[in-house]
Amino acid sequence: MFTMRIASYNLYEGAQDTYSQLQDFITEQDIDVLCLQEVNGWGVGYPKRIDEFGESIRFPHYVYGDSNTRFKLATYSSIPMLSSRVITEGFWHSSVKTTFEIQDNTLDVWNIHLNPRGEDDRLKEVEQIVAMIDPNQPTIITGDFNSLSEADHYPDDFIDILTAQGITKFGKKRLRYDVTSRLVSAGLVDIAADLGVSTNTVPTPANKDMHHAAEMRLDYMFVSQGLVRAVKSIKVPKTPLTDSISDHYPIIMDLEIL
């Protein structure tokens, strides 16, 4: 049996003011694969925080997702990576694809941070990812999608609430679910919604982003059809630590692959 605990976490501005709390949280969670978004500033200086963090949490394998913007990504792992690829072309930020060996097969993990501007821009990025995945290959797509899901049943007046706060990136006259719907149509499964445990991932009490002014789920784990049975749990930990580390809450999923 192959077991894996995978987490995704968007860090506010690289967790510059909450770095030690981040280390404490990750260490206590016993994570195998960690996908981080907004590791801003981690690739500069000496020693580089991208290296220092891996050593501090005892993750010997990692890839730094240098981006087109200052919003960087990183994927860390306690288990060896067969390969990794950072893709910047066609992405506002970047995406990181890592491949792991599982039993007699391989597992692809996509760490993504989609365009913050509008759904049309994000949809183009997702179309690019869909074109690159193999539907028969065990796959996880996780990260900050900057998009909503119809599965979360937002109230009818939610678009009015957002518009009144100057938030239009999720639609101007109606809520748009193009990104998450496209992944579903491609055969991927929004596992939190599938298990009936979806909950908001923003805002936290530490939130300073006006675009997170209402409770929304912006962070997801989509899995390929063949992995659905392997998912044992998925959760969004809301603790004193995660209340303060970032403006997003993390997602943690446990897999058991026979």
Notable features of this structure?
6-stranded mixed beta sheet; Deoxyribonuclease I, Chain A; single chain; 258 residues
Description:
There is one protein chain. With 258 residues, the chain is of the alpha+beta class. The chain contains seven helices and twelve strands. It has helices at 19-29, 49-56, 119-132, 158-164, 178-185, 191-194, 240-245; strands at residues 2-10, 33-37, 61-65, 73-77, 83-87, 95-102, 105-113, 139-144, 189-190, 219-223, 231-235, 251-257. The strands form two sheets. It has a six-stranded mixed sheet, with no helix packed on it. It is globular, with a radius of gyration of 17 Å. The mean pLDDT is 96.
Name of the top-level CATH class? Alpha Beta
Low-confidence stretches: none
Q: What name does the CATH topology carry?
A: Deoxyribonuclease I, Chain A
Number of helices: 7
CATH architecture title: 4-Layer Sandwich
Please provide the ordered H/E string of secondary-structure elements: EHEHEEEEEHEHHEHEEHE
The span between the termini is 5 Å
Give a nutshell description of this structure.
With 258 residues, the protein is of the alpha+beta class. It contains seven helices and twelve strands.
Summarize the SSE layout with pairings.
Blueprint: E1 2-10, H1 19-29, E2 33-37, H2 49-56, E3 61-65, E4 73-77, E5 83-87, E6 95-102, E7 105-113, H3 119-132, E8 139-144, H4 158-164, H5 178-185, E9 189-190, H6 191-194, E10 219-223, E11 231-235, H7 240-245, E12 251-257
